[in-house]
Every structure is written in C-alpha cells, then in structure tokens.
Design goal:
8 helices, about 40% helix, binds adenosine-5'-triphosphate, binds magnesium ion
Length: about 240
Amino acid sequence: MLKIQNLKTEKENKQILKGLDLTLEKGKTYVLMGPNGSGKSTLAKTLSGDPSYKVSEGSISWEEESLLEKKPEELALQGIFISYQHPPEIPGLNISQYLRQIYNKKHDTNLNPAEFANLLEEKFTALNLPKEFKNRYLNEGFSGGEKKKMEILQMLLLKPKIAILDEIDSGVDVDALKVIIEAVKNLQNNENTTILYITHYPSLLEQVEPEKIFLMKEGKIVKEGREDLARQIREEGYAEF
Ligand SMILES: Nc1ncnc2c1ncn2[C@@H]1O[C@H](COP(=O)(O)OP(=O)(O)OP(=O)(O)O)[C@@H](O)[C@H]1O
Ligand SMILES: [Mg+2]
C-alpha cells in the first residue's frame, strides 16, 4: 500500500502541501477532488519525484519502503505512474521509438521494432487511436483528448503498480472517456494496480466506482467519504469544508 504521512512540499520556497495524509490500498480505486490551486497536481508531481518540488517534511512509502529521495526514473521502474494534467509536447521524439524504449527498460527485455509494432498496434486499437500516430512526435500538435490517450497508452505499456491520473477526464469527449476508463479497469484487473483519479467532475464517480473519495483543500486532505461526500460537493461546492 501507499502511505503518505504529514507531507509538506514546497515549490520555489512556497509551501503548497501542508501536512497531507493519505493511504491507498493495493488494487483499489480512489478519487481525489478539491478546488483549483489546492495542491492536487503538486501531490502528483511530488509522487513522480519531480526535483523542482522539495519535500521539507513527512514521508511517502510503498510496501513499507520509502520513496523519498528516489529519482523519477527509479520511481517509474518501481511501478509508479503519473498521467499529467498537461502532458508536454516533445518535438523530435518519435512515438514508436520512445514507447519501445520505455517498454524494454521497464520490462527488462529487448523487443526489436518489428516485435514491438504488434504490441503497439494492439494498444492503439484498444484506445481507438489512429495507427498513423506512431510516426508522429510525442504529443506534438495533438488535441487535448489525444494527449490524454497517449498518457494512457504509456500506462498500458508500463503496467504500473500505482497510477495517479491527473484530470484524465478533462478535455476528453464522452466516447473517449469510456474507452479510457475501460482500459484503466482492464489494467487494474490484470495487474492489481492502485488507481487514484484526480478530477473536478462528480459524474466520473459513477463510471469508476471508487472505494473512497478524498477532498483536498489548501494542501491537506480535509475529508474522505463516499457517494454522500460527492453529493455534498456537487450540491454545495467546496465552501462548506
Ligand atoms: N513556482 C510557483 N510559485 C508559486 N506558487 C506556485 C508555484 N507553482 C505552483 N504554485 C501554486 O501552487 C498551488 C497548487 O497548484 P496545483 O497545480 O497543485 O493545484 P491543483 O489543485 O492541481 O489545481 P487545479 O485544480 O487548477 O489543477 C497553486 O496555487 C499554484 O499557483
Ligand atoms: Mg491540477
């Protein structure tokens, strides 16, 4: 399980996470909600090992092992996956080559381009992405929804133990969202992955049926609950909390 205790994170000397506690159990689905600027993406980036976020206090552990001080690539190899709210465009980085490299590294194998092409085609089909995309540069000129699908494609190839999906449902059409959620559920069934969805939309809850909903405000988890909490957020907004 992932255990976060009293986490305090700073970015450029501004404290953003202010003593956050969160526990996620293996194989379960959770949802994190909270107002703009409350620190949700900061939590995701801290978990990714992004060196521009400084942990000043607290602990993060997975299966009793500390994840603090680990580099982003070490965390990725260990099975931590973050899908970004704003995935970066990387001109010049060919998608097929990039995906084959991360796949080979993660699974300690050496598929050649022809062997990998079959696997990749299967994932493109599952996500309903045109095959021509494999010759493009990573996210360059992609629409918002296409970028989100490319994040999920990476997740399917890496088969993480824990996936934090930061606003995977924003800018995505209803059909694409169904495809994405289906792909996440499949992965979870096969790999027993822990999933944390970060979202602004209570409607996502009906589709993903989370174990728990966490509410974040001003850098802390201030409440957790289930459908009752979602209803309260939908009807009253965040001011009450
Ligand atoms: N370099 C920085 N200097 C000062 N403040 C920063 C810096 N980087 C981030 N912040 C602030 O940290 C806060 C948390 O940002 P974060 O992106 O984590 O929020 P969020 O909960 O993901 O919001 P949203 O729902 O809008 O995505 C924001 O108020 C943001 O302006
Ligand atoms: Mg955010």
